[in-house]
Every structure is written in structure tokens, then in C-alpha cells.
Write a structure and sequence with these properties.
By secondary structure, this protein is mostly helical. It has three helices and two strands. A two-stranded antiparallel ribbon has the order 1-2.
Length: 106
């Protein structure tokens, strides 16, 4: 298998850590019987499918979360009343469009 450079693989450091852990466990794997090895391969395949399903669920949740974020950002930005976000000293950090109109700024 050809390895891609670190800059092209976003989880390169995670993969490197996993490979290092695997190297530490290699001695245990050498002592496994054929039956144990087949069971381990089955477990790993099952685990991989579970992770892929969880990953897909997370992607769908992220899409839904992004849609909700856009919806509530639009509700905030285009509300007919002025909304302001202040810091601890009373400085205005953010304002919606109505708030900007009240202050006379764009």
C-alpha cells in the first residue's frame, strides 16, 4: 500500500499513533492460532462496519446541525428588532441588521 504524504492525509498523526500501538501488540498477534486469527479478522471487520455507520450518522448530524445554525443565524440577523451582543465591559461585539440600522452603521 502506498503511503501518502502527511500534508495530504488529515488524520496522519492519528494513524501514526495507531500504527505505533499496533507495533507494540505485534508479539501477541504472532502467538494467535488460525481460529483466533479468523475470529479477530471477523471482529475487526464488524468493528470497521460499525465505525463507518457511526461516521455516516455523524455526517448526517453535522449536516442537520449546519442547517439549524443557518436557520437561527438568519432569524437573528433578519429579526425586526435590534439584537446586540456585549462583552463584559459593555462593548458591542455583534449586532444584527436591525441593531446596525439603529446605530447607523452597516
Amino acid at each position: 500500500m502506498k503511503k501518502s504524504p502527511a500534508r495530504k492525509e488529515p488524520n496522519f498523526s492519528l494513524r501514526r499513533k495507531a500504527e505505533k500501538k499496533l507495533e507494540q501488540q505485534t508479539d501477541r498477534l504472532r502467538d494467535l492460532s488460525k481460529n483466533d486469527m479468523e475470529q479477530l479478522i471477523h471482529e475487526l471487520g464488524t468493528h470497521q462496519i460499525e465505525l463507518e455507520m457511526q461516521n455516516e450518522d455523524l455526517r448526517q448530524a453535522q449536516v442537520a446541525l449546519d442547517a439549524l445554525h443557518r436557520r437561527y443565524a438568519d432569524l437573528y440577523d433578519f429579526a425586526p428588532v435590534g439584537y446586540f451582543i456585549f462583552d463584559g465591559s459593555g462593548l458591542i461585539l455583534e449586532a444584527n441588521l436591525a441593531g446596525a440600522n439603529i446605530l447607523g452603521v452597516s
